[in-house]
Amino acid sequence: MNNSKIALVTGGSRGLGKNMALSLAQKGIDVILTYNSQKDDALAVVAEIEQAGRKAAALQLNTADVKSFDGFFEQLKTTLETTFGTNHFDFLINNAGIGIHASFAETTEEQFDQLTNIHLKGVFFLTQKALPLLNDGGRIVNVSSGLARFAIPGSSAYGALKGAIEVLTRYQAKELGARGIAVNVIAPGAIETDFGGGHVRDNTQLNQWVSSVTALGRAGLPDDIGGVVAFLCTDDAKWINGQRIEVSGGMNL
């Protein structure tokens, strides 16, 4: 039997999810990561985790497609048994997401529905369906955004849905506490990744503006985020529950 703890990270092939997966592995935690379309990237992360001496696997998942979740969890059960020698896992990291930049006046119903399915409905029901496989005493980490606390034009739907995730986190913490499962939410600030078209990374003016409103004087990097998620999955964080932890370098204080 495998005595190692196992984390499931959605959207773990690149960006923040990749950094979370690698940071968890550095803490001695085995990792299953999901990818939507970037299979080669996901397998490269698996290889990197295995080189670090941990077990890892990658599974395809579209977190917007709730109807696919039953099939995904059948795949997950098989992977847990064949790769990890167990039938449960310990940590669920709801990281997968997309960015759509549109003003409130111009956001379409199609854009709204796509964001809702990925950032709220998908997270709600993926977590619900994961409960039978999640060990008692496990952890759930949801991902919000600084945009739920401060408003930057162009992110009204995204920011509102992240606000919903913060409320959902408290309900999950309250209702799952009887099983010893702690649930927290991290809220990254602006990060240099390819998220949302890579604007923070590639747009010099935007990057300079982010740096100017951040107390630590720069935009965030993926490496600023993953370690916080890994920490929340260790015993050092066992008494943190139902909390929103902003990881933004002090943005818009």
Automatic annotation (TrEMBL):
Lineage: Bacteria, Pseudomonadati, Bacteroidota, Cytophagia, Cytophagales
Entry similarity comment: Belongs to the short-chain dehydrogenases/reductases (SDR) family.
Keywords assigned: NADP, Oxidoreductase
One Pfam match: adh_short_C2
Domain of life: Bacteria
Organism: Larkinella arboricola
SUPFAM superfamilies with a match to the protein in the record: NAD(P)-binding Rossmann-fold domains
Name the UniProt record assigns to this protein: NAD(P)-dependent dehydrogenase (Short-subunit alcohol dehydrogenase family)
Family annotation (Gene3D superfamilies): NAD(P)-binding Rossmann-like Domain
Molecular function as annotated in GO: oxidoreductase activity
